[in-house]
Design brief:
Order of helices and strands: HEEHHEEEEHEEEHHE
Radius of gyration: 16 Å
Shape: globular
Largest sheet: 5 strands, mixed
Number of helices: 6
Oligomer: single chain
Number of strands: 10
Strand content: 25-35%
Length: 228
């Protein structure tokens, strides 16, 4: 059944028409479909899988920039998460797989769209690609995520000009402050952020000044499934 999107924010509905990259479980491209189609649980439950990225941006004090997703978001509204999470699109410059260039380009684009960060402050070659994570997470019964997520760390002091249609709030946190947020049950967190924090984030963060040592470019980590 196709849901009626009239109840949702107009701009967020428009973005649901963007074309995501469909992949198999080995991250091999098999086609494209709309963001709407990719995020409906009825399709996810039939195995539909798409490519995504997650950016973790740190300032010169090694604090992590978090965002709280806007109330207007169709999936996972009002939840705190890492700096930026979205999708490379099915267009030539974001389909390039060599050196993860397509995902890097998409990450730079969305940091500008959501947080107003100028591209020259986050050059493509400064994104440190660490690994890929495959996860599935329902949002509200109708919508959800099923992605292979490219994980990027970047260290940069940036100027923010936040889009209120995308982001409700932002904050920089230390590891201790983030752990306190997780301990507070009143603070909603996105499921992919929880998975990454519970497995890799704090280990990576502790080694941020030697982050290349943490790279695992060939593995696709399967998190939140019965069999990893």
């Amino acid at each position: 059944m196709t849901p009626d999107l009239k109840e949702y924010d107009e701009e967020q509905v428009r973005l649901m028409g963007e074309m995501c990259i469909l992949i198999d479980e080995n991250d091999q491209r098999i086609g494209a479909d709309s963001k709407k189609t990719c995020h409906l649980m009825e399709n996810i439950n039939q195995g539909l899988l798409h490519r995504a990225f997650s950016v973790f941006l740190f300032d010169s004090q090694n604090r992590l920039l978090l965002q709280q997703r806007a109330s207007e978001k169709i999936t996972f509204p009002d939840m705190w998460t890492n700096t930026c999470c979205s999708h490379p699109l099915n267009k030539p410059d974001e389909l390039i797989e060599e050196e993860q260039l397509g995902a890097r380009t998409a990450a730079q684009r969305k940091l500008g769209h959501e947080l107003g960060i100028a591209p020259e402050q986050v050059p493509l070659d400064q994104f440190n690609y660490l690994t890929r994570i495959h996860y599935l997470a329902p949002s509200d019964g109708l919508w959800g995520e099923h992605e292979i997520d490219y994980i990027f760390f970047i260290k940069a002091n940036v100027d923010l000009n936040v889009s209120p249609n995308e982001v409700r709030d932002v904050k920089y946190v230390t590891p201790e402050e983030l752990k306190a947020m997780f301990a507070d049950e009143s603070v909603p967190m996105t499921p992919w952020f929880k998975l990454i924090c519970n497995t890799f984030l704090f280990k990576w963060w502790a080694n941020i000044d030697n982050i290349s040592a943490e790279k695992d470019v060939d593995t696709i980590h399967r998190l939140g499934f019965d069999k990893n």
